Structures are given as structure tokens and as C-alpha cells.
Fold this sequence. Notes:
The chain is an alpha+beta fold. The protein has one domain: 3-Layer(aba) Sandwich (Trna Endonuclease, Chain: A, domain 1), CATH 3.40.1350. Helix content is 22%, strand content 23%. The chain has three helices and seven strands. It has helices spanning 3-20, 102-117, 164-171, and strands at 23-27, 37-41, 47-57, 64-66, 80-88, 94-101, 135-137. A five-stranded mixed beta sheet has the order 1-2-3-5-6. It has a two-stranded antiparallel ribbon with strand order 4-7. A hairpin with a 5-residue loop joins strand 2 and strand 3 (47-57). The longest helix is centred in the N-terminal third of the chain and has 18 residues, at 3-20. The chain is globular and about 50 Å long.
Amino acid sequence: MDRKLRGSSGEHLVCGVLAQFNWAAALTRGGVARTDVLAVNADTGRTVTIQVKTNWCQTGELAKWRLGLKDILPAKAPSEWYVLVKLEGPAPARSRYFVVPRNHVAAASWIDHQSWLKDPSAAPGSRNAPQSLALVGETMFAGYEDHWERLNESTDTVPVLLPGWCRERALDERVGLPSGHPWHEKLPEW
């Protein structure tokens, strides 16, 4: 599937799901950094910004999303979200959604890539791909699947649902967290 078509389909699907949860959603259509969808909750008036990443894979395959340098930047507001869309199978594809706060995505992408890059069991010089080429698999975000209700919360209060090993690696000086990440001040429990 063409990359632009895949991305566009994911954005439209997210808008459709948001409407089912009484969010008025609009595509930003470029020009707005870090935001593909802007949504307002019709009941509460809460506004959120959503970055959509879409992956298509065969039925049974695990999805991987490219989460590079822009994706490790910390949130500017407690209303920045990602929705990672997994399109699975032949057309028409079945859709799965992972609703994740921006700071959780930033930590996950950094921790996963740095763990791979600096794995002491890897042959010296065999791993040198930069953060801009980081691919993060769906198992990292499994705890966030279909958590649309969390959009009504501040991203600063949403529980961290990343795998437990990520917290250990965030504390490991060889891995840590990306520069400027708010968890440097206080790492949450998970």
C-alpha cells in the first residue's frame, strides 16, 4: 500500500472512531507540526491534538511504527496524543488502535532503540542505525489498545502502560530517556 494512502486511511479511520465517542474531529492537512487530527469533546469541550502513525501488515504479523527524532520530543501540553493504527490483512483491512500519550511514545521509542543499539551482547559495530530510523513494535504499546476514554484525561495523569522492562532501562545510564523528557525529574511507577 502506498505510504501516503496508508497514512491518510489511518487518519480518516481515527476521525471516524473519535466521532463514535462524541469527539468532533478535524484533519489538519499539513502545516500543523505534531498534529494530524484536532478533536474537541462535544460533552466536555476538552481539546486534544493527535499524531497518527499507521502501519499495514499481513494478518498475524506484528506491526512496527517508525518513531524517529520528531517522535522523541516531549509534549508541549498535557493534551498531546498518538494513535498508532494497525491495518491488518488484505483489503479491507481490520483496524486496531493504540491510544498513547506523547511522552509515553517518546520514552518508548528512545528506550527501545537505545536498548537495541547499546545491547552488550551485539557484535561491536554491528548496530549503528540512528534514532531517526527507530522502529517500535506493537508489543511495546499493547497496554494502550483501545483506550479512547483516556483522551478525556490529562496526559500527565494517565498511567504508564509500557512493559516493565522499559522502566528498568530508563534508569539504566546506558539507555536512559531522551533529552528534555519530563520523566527525568521524576520517573513514574509502572
